[in-house]
Amino acid sequence: MKRKSVSALIVTLALVFGFTLFASAQQKPAQTKSPDEKFASDAASGSLFEMEAGKLAVQKASSQHVKEFGQTMIDDHGKASQELKTLAASKNIKLPEEMSRKHREDLEKLSQYSGAEFDKNYMEMMVKDHKKDVSEFRKQANEGKDPDLRAWAAKKVPALEEHLTMAQDMNSDIKAGSGGKK
Predict the structure, then answer these.
(1) Is residue 164 domain-resident?
(2) Domain of 44: which CATH number?
(3) Residue 151 belongs to some domain of the structure
(4) Number of domains within the chain
(5) Per-residue pLDDT for the chain (182 aa), expressed as one digit of tens each?
(6) How far apart are CA 81 and CA 113, in angstroms?
(7) Which residue in 24, 94, 99, 132 is deepest, having the highest Cβ count within 10 Å?
């Protein structure tokens, strides 16, 4: 009787141990992104946001200048997004196909406005977003480990600075009551 109990215990322990090993083998360890990969993912999400927000501007803005700025965002960020996809693929970096939760929330908030109210909120958002972009791209250009990603970020800084200046100028004009016209 004692022998059967010991054998049963050994079989049970072996099964539990085997199941534990199997289950742990099935779980993939959480992979952390390198700073370069995080930058690429954030940049991809940001471009998706800029393009979608630009589409809203083309549809909902009251100012022709704001509509044109929106189209510029669609064109410039669309091109940058394609370049980043090509670069990321060559580095085996998986980019998000959708924008981040924060970007989705900002877009949802923006979609609730139209006309002059849209212009005001969109341009404020573009100033804030491009300040952040310029800072992140400069940091990547100066501190990134991957030379190709560092070079791509450096190449994009002047365009982002131009977007920021345009957004700040239009935002000031809207606040002054001239509707984004310079």
Answers:
(1) yes
(2) 1.20.1260.10
(3) yes
(4) 1
(5) 556 665 554 554 444 444 444 444 444 444 678 999 999 999 999 999 999 999 999 999 999 999 999 999 999 999 999 999 999 999 999 999 999 999 999 999 999 999 999 999 999 999 999 999 999 999 999 999 999 999 999 999 999 999 999 999 999 999 888 665 54
(6) 26
(7) 99
Q: Which domain holds residue 76?
A: 35-176
Q: Is 182 inside a domain boundary?
A: no
